[in-house]
Design a protein that fits this description.
Elements: H1 2-18, H2 25-32, H3 40-61, H4 63-66, E1 69-71, E2 78-80, H5 82-112, H6 116-135, H7 150-160, H8 170-180, H9 185-210, H10 217-244, H11 251-270
Antiparallel strand pairs: 1-2
Helix pairs in contact: 1-2, 1-3, 1-10, 3-9, 3-10, 5-7, 5-9, 6-8, 6-11, 7-8, 8-9
Length: about 270
């Protein structure tokens, strides 16, 4: 039981650190699971639950922007925040491509692409793209999240579909897509956070529907530990990234991806 708690904390930390950075949480979890994992069926459930912890962190950090209801101090009546509503409308529109493609090809992707070789190649290619984009940065007309059009939101959603290939990174795909479409780094990161909520909730619901094994008290404890580890780690990472991008670019993440991808290739194909 003690060893399982250590595993849960470690995997929760990995999820929390990597989910919102453009370095692929799925890719890291696939690699870490080679050494630290539970029974195959429970691993599926565990990965789902720690993702929920990361989602909760986003909601906590951006609660004021995302919650569309408020109180009018003068009349004490409930008011609607139009900007928050439009954020939700745009994120729901943006998630539709991934929902459709996930329903059509999700099982095939899980069976054929969830392996270290695919992860390594995706990490390297994504790293190169991040570096190239940062070296060729153009004007960024979209300075605020509210300025993202519905068309742009949908196109960012199409970019997100690239993240179905493990190792690509959902965060990297949406951030790169938003930046190519004219968003500043801050806007690209914020919209990536917002889009994570419906995307990850949909993926979580899909995984839960497929899970049909029973769980006991020990499994509940392990799930709770992993959830909390992912939540608090993701909370810190979100705040770090929001501060980091104020004065820094994504090149460091690009180099990290390339280095990790090369190490994975060496370890799993040569050694």
């Amino acid at each position: 039981m003690f060893l399982d708690i250590i595993k849960a904390i470690t995997l929760g930390l990995v999820e929390g650190i990597t989910e919102f950075l453009p370095i692929s949480s799925t890719g890291h979890l696939i690699i870490v699971n080679k050494w630290l994992s539970f029974a195959p069926s429970f691993t599926v459930m565990f990965d789902v639950v720690i993702q929920l912890g990361a989602i909760l962190a986003v909601i906590v950090v951006f609660w004021k922007k995302l919650w569309p209801f408020g109180k009018d101090e003068a009349s004490k009546s409930t008011t609607l925040n139009v900007l928050s509503l439009h954020i939700w409308y745009k994120t729901i529109l943006a998630v539709l491509p991934a929902l459709v493609l996930g329903a059509l090809f999700g099982s095939f992707i899980e069976e054929k692409l969830f392996n270290p070789l695919v992860v390594a190649v995706a990490l390297i290619l994504g790293g190169v793209v991040l570096i190239v984009i940062e070296k060729r940065r153009v004007a960024t007309p979209v300075k605020f999240t509210s300025e993202i059009s519905y068309r742009t939101a949908f196109l960012i959603g199409l970019f997100q579909c690239l993240a179905m290939v493990p190792g690509t990174s959902r965060a990297a795909a949406t951030i790169i897509g938003a930046m190519l479409l004219g968003a500043s780094r801050v806007v690209a990161v914020e919209f990536s956070f917002f889009l994570a909520i419906p995307t990850m909730l949909a993926a979580t619901a899909y995984s839960l529907l497929k899970y049909n094994a029973s769980i006991g008290i020990s499994e509940v404890i392990i799930l709770g530990v992993g959830f909390m580890a992912a939540f608090f780690t993701a909370l810190a990472v979100i705040k770090f990234l929001l501060n980091y991008i104020q004065n820094n670019n994504f090149k460091a993440f690009g180099y990290y991806r390339i280095g990790l991808g090369v190490l994975i290739l060496l370890f799993f194909t040569i050694l």
